[in-house]
Amino acid sequence: MTDARDVTARAPAARHPAQLWIASTYFAEGYPYSIVNNLAEVVFASLGASLGAVGLTSLFHLPWNLKFLWAPFVDAYGTKRRWLLGIEVGLVAMLVAAAFASSSAASVPALSIAFIALALLSATHDVAIDGFYLTALDESEQSRFVGLRQLSYKLANLLVRGPAIVLAGLVGWRLGMLALAALMGAVTLAHVALLPRDEVERRSFGELARWLLRPRVAGAATLLGGLAVGLRSAWPRVASTPIGRVPMEAYLALALGVSLVWLRARRSTSKPAESPYRAAFSGFLAQPRAWVILAFVLLFRTGESFLQKMKWPFLRDALHLSLAEYGIANGTFGVAASFAGTLLGGFLISRHGLRRWIWPFVVAQNGLHLLYVWLAAYAARGAVSLSTITAVICVEHVGEGLGTAVFTVFLMRCCDPEHRAAHMAIVTALMSIGFTVAGMASGYLAEALGFVRYFGFTFVVTIPSMALIVVLPYLDGRSVTRAPAH
What we know:
It is a single chain. The protein is mainly alpha-helical. It has 2 domains: about 20-215, Up-down Bundle (Growth Hormone, Chain: A), CATH 1.20.1250; about 280-470, Up-down Bundle (Growth Hormone, Chain: A), CATH 1.20.1250.20. The protein is about 75% helix and about 0% strand. α8 (about 145-170) packs antiparallel against α9 (about 175-195), α15 (about 290-300) crosses α21 and α17 packs antiparallel against α18. The longest helix is centred in the last third of the chain and has 30 residues, at about 325-350. The chain is globular and about 65 Å long. The protein starts with 17 loop residues before the first helix and ends in an 18-residue tail after the last helix. Mean pLDDT is about 80; it is low at about 1-15, about 270-275 and about 480-485.
C-alpha cells in the first residue's frame, strides 16, 4: 500500500490535453509577476508618488529572491494543486484590493500593502506551479513543453506591459486593475477544471497551521516583520551609501550560499533531519556532485547576462540604432527567434535526450557572442545595415533559446522527487546571482575594454560553465525516481 504521506504515482490520463494546463499555469505565473514588477512603478508614478517611493517599488521583488525559504512547505503540506488554486483566489482578492486602493495619492500606503501581499502570493504561486509541472509530467514531457512554458510566460508579460497599461490609460487605474482581477479569476476557474490530480497530501494544512502557531515560530515571524518595517523606513538613507548600492539580491545570494555550506558541514556530522524543512535543503546537498550543480547553475547565465546588459548601449552608441528600430529588431523579431529556439530545443531534447544536445546547444548560446565581436569590429570601419544588425540579433536569440531549453531541463532534473518545489526554488534563486554580478560590473568593464574586447570577454566567461558539462550529473535523466521517505 502507498503511504498517504508519499507522492503517488502519476494519475491516469487527464480529461484535457496537458498543453492546455501548461499554457494556462505558466501564463498565470508570469501574469502577477509582471503586475508586481512591471506595473507597480507605473501605477505609483501615475498616482503622484514621490520618486523615492517609486524607486522603493523595486523592493517588491524580494519575495522572488526569498521564496526558497518557504518553498519546502509547499512540498511538505497539502498538494501543489491546492496551493496553486488557493493562491490564485488570494491573487484575485489582492488585485481587487489594489484596484480600490489606486484611486489617489492618499491611498499609496494601502496600495503598497496590497502589492506586498501580491508579491508574496505570486512568488509562492511560482513555487507551486513549478512543483506541479514536475509532479504531473515525466522527464520526456517536461523537456518537450519547455518552449510552451516560456511562450506562455512571455505572453503574460507582454499583455501586462502593453494592453493593460493602455486600458488603464483609457478607463483609469481602478477599472483597469479590476479588469486584471477579472482575467485572473477566469484563469482560476479554468484551472479548477483543467488541472489533473497527481498527488495526495503528505501532511494536512491543519498541521501546517499548528506548526505556524508554535510560540517559537510566531516569535520569529514577529521579529522578521519588525526587521522588515525597520528596513523599509531606513532604506532611503542606506541606499545612498556604498552598502545600499549593492543589489539586495547579492546579500540574499550570500546568505543562501552560507546556509548551504553550513548544511553541508552539518550533514556529515549529524543524524538525518526529521524536519521536512531542513530535509529539503540537506536533500539538495545530498545529490551526487552537488557542488558541481551549484557551480554550473551560478555560472551558466553569467556570460549571457554580461552580453544583454550592454547590448542596447552598444547598438545605440556604436551603431546609432534608434529605440524604435531596436524595439522591432530585438523586441519583435528577436523575441520570436528566442521562442523558436526554445521550442526546437525542448522538442529535440525530449526526442534524443539531454546528453546528445547539451554541447551543441550550449556552444550555440555562447559561441554566438562572437557575432557581436565581429559586429563591433565591423562598425569601427563603417556603417552597418539594419538588416545585418537584425540578422545578428535574431541568430543570437535562437542560440539563447536553445540554451534556455538546456538549462531549464537540467534544472528540473536537479529537483529530487520528494522536494520538487523547494529544489526548484533553490536553483532559481542561485541562478539570479549571475545577473546581479553582471549588472554591477558590466558598465565599468565596457568602458575599460571597449566593445570589441568586451564582447570577447562575454564569451570567455562562459568557458568555466562549459567545462563543468564534462562532470555534470543527470545528463541521461535522473536515476532516482523516488526519494527515500523521511
